[in-house]
Specification:
Elements: E1 11-16, E2 19-24, H1 29-34, E3 46-51, E4 60-61, E5 69-75, E6 80-86, E7 94-95, E8 103-110, H2 113-117, E9 125-126
Parallel strand pairs: 2-3
Antiparallel strand pairs: 1-2, 1-9, 3-8, 4-7, 5-6, 5-8
Length: 127
């Protein structure tokens, strides 16, 4: 297993389109609330995967996050429904997808990752 974080959070390899991304998967409420707070960066092919078990439209804030990211909002059919840019340290804004469909997962990646690697809405995500 690759060490992609100093935190003791489970990690999974996920295929997004044709790209492999190593995602941390917070499993406790405390880990989910902490998310990417107080970090200075993510490595190139690193992300964080959130499982949204009870939210039709999950909300994410960027309080105490030090770098811009983008959120991939993934539906029950494992396809990307929306890609939402999220600005650093903007705790006043709650981010969700404007597409009004049930969301099962959200993957947070570095800003520009999707453009750089050709990831777009409709792409399939494999867990």
């Amino acid at each position: 297993m690759h060490r992609i974080s100093s935190r003791d959070i489970p990690k999974h390899t996920i295929l997004i389109g044709t790209r492999m991304v190593f995602c941390e998967v917070p499993s406790t409420s405390e880990e989910r609330q902490k998310g990417l707070k107080h970090r200075d960066f993510l490595f190139e092919h690193q992300g964080m995967l959130f499982v949204c078990e009870s939210r039709y439209q999950p909300l994410f804030t960027m309080r105490d996050v030090r770098f811009d990211i983008e959120g991939l909002f993934i539906g029950n059919d494992y396809t990307i429904k929306d890609i939402v840019p999220m600005r650093k340290m903007d705790g006043s804004t709650a981010y969700t997808t404007p597409v009004r469909v049930p969301i099962k997962y959200v993957i947070e990646l570095n800003k520009g990752y999707c453009t750089k690697y050709g990831i777009k809405r409709g792409d399939r995500v494999y867990f």
